[in-house]
C-alpha cells in the first residue's frame, strides 16, 4: 500500500512499529492509572457498603484491568522474542491486532467504572444511563469515526 511516503518497505515497518509503541505507551499509562485506582477501592470505608452487584462489577473490573495490562505487554513480549529474526512484519501485524484488544478492554473498563461509580454515588438507573452514554460516545469515537475516516467520508 502506497501512502505517498518515499520510504522502503523496511522503513515503513519501522515507522509503523514506532507508531504502535507510542500508542501503547499512552494506553499503558491509562491502564496503569485505572488499575491503581481500582486497587485502592477495597481500602476505602464506603467499600464495605457495596451490594453484591457492585462487588461483582468491581471484581470484574479488576480482572479487566489485569487483562488490559497483559494485552499492553503483549507487543513488547513479541518484539523481545522475535528481535533479530527479521520478521518485523509479523511483529507489527501482531502488535496491531493486540492494540485493538487493548482499545476494546479500555473502553469496557471506562464504561464499567462509570457504571460502578454512578451506581455507588447515585443509583442504578442513573448508572445505566451514564455508562450507556459513555459506551455510545466510545463507540462513535473509537469505531464509527475511524471507519468514516477510512472510507474518506470526512
TrEMBL record:
Pfam families: DUF6328. The chain crosses the membrane at residues 55-78, 98-118, 124-145. Keywords: Membrane, Transmembrane, Transmembrane helix. It comes from the Bacteria. This is Sodium:proton antiporter. It comes from Nocardioides agri. The lineage of its organism: Bacteria, Bacillati, Actinomycetota, Actinomycetes, Propionibacteriales.
